[in-house]
Amino acid sequence: MLYLSRLTSLALAIALVIGAPLAFAAQPAPAVAPAGTAATTKAPLPLEELRTFAEVMDRIKAAYVEPVDDKTLLENAIKGMLSNLDPHSAYLGPEDFAELQESTSGEFGGLGIEVGAEDGFIKVVSPIDDTPASKAGIQAGDFIVKINGQPTRGQTMTEAVDKMRGKIGQKITLTLVRDGGTPFDVTLARAIIQVKSVKSQLLESGYGYIRITQFQVKTGEEVSKALAKLRKDNGKKLNGIILDLRNNPGGVLQAAVEVVDHFITKGLIVYTKGRIANSELRFSATGKDESEAVPMVTLINGGSASASEIVAGALQDQKRAVVMGTPSFGKGSVQTVLPLNNERALKITTALYYTPNGRSIQAQGIIPDIEVRRAKITNEQDGDYFKEADLQGHLGNGNGGADKPSSSGGKAKPMPQDDDYQLAQALSLLKGLSITSGR
User: Fold this and answer.
1) Per residue, what are the HEC states of 59-120?
2) Is 306 a catalytic residue?
3) Whole-model pTM above 0.85?
4) Catalytic residue of the set 200, 306, 308, 333
5) Is the pLDDT of residue 349 over 70?
6) Which residue of the set 331, 333, 347, 420 is catalytic?
């Protein structure tokens, strides 16, 4: 089992990746036995297939319209070998491997968009908050059909991401299709993406809000600080907490475990199972619940993937939080990053993870306890109703306290829940839970 406080450099160890299709956040894990040791006896080499492979290389080199060197052919063969296993296994060249390590630190160059593949197209899993993509209005579920006028159909995710990355400040045009509608263009400039992993604030007195945009190495620590700040800002124990995991593509496994550990006192958080011994891990609570067991609602949607699903699933199974929103993405697999020579690596799926109750999320996702879809909020004025306190000569309140005429009360400060229907519903539920629990 991994010891949660032992965090070493990715360059020095094999890493577990719990992220969306191209969310290359990683976390060190124990060394993994060579693939051949998974079985008691090695299968004989497929000599006929190897002869065919060699013959294909010879034919390409002899007949292809342009010269192709052995290195290029072999690297492409390796890429094909990995990419045809599943959508999350891949051969990482020097640039891709560097990007994986960059995303662990929370800073990288690009548009701030997490993507996956669906029906041969590149699909937005989620935009990252406060990045060019989110500011341009790109939404989870959008299909990227062209990049700078070039169709993306048939491209691998790696190829598409390579085209979206580039010089800082350089503009790029994406052609998007949303909800099967007419394609439209969005032009945005590449930037250094500095991802703020955790944001928090009081929505109302007594009710705290924590949003996690990605799971990075320090996310658990940031959530701990957020809880402490919310208690300080409130001046007393909170009445409830909303944990927002919407459009969170995942990230570091240990960070997800640490986040859950801040909200429960005991019990299993997540476990993984695979073919090799070191892929079977179990993570349990350490008893350091920092949330003081206050009522809790967790928000998820179709952009909540992998590590987000670990957190939501654990809180749901442990009956610690009411999960609200829409079904999550459904990535329940674990990738192991195997560093190679020449600054290259293999990212290969080695296990599936399971919630405390033994649920595999793979291709199914987390089903919320209460389904609440996105909707627009239209605020209507109640009107200036005439009240008893407006009447001349009205009786005062015998129990004391100031009168409350219809003109009393100023304009309220805008809050996130004012135009976020799902968040508003979560806050309403949280208030009900805190009332019934006697807080």
Assistant:
1) HHHHHCCCCCCHHHHHHHHHHHHHHCCCCCCEEECHHHHHHHHHHHHCEEEECCEEEEEECC
2) yes
3) no
4) 306
5) yes
6) 331
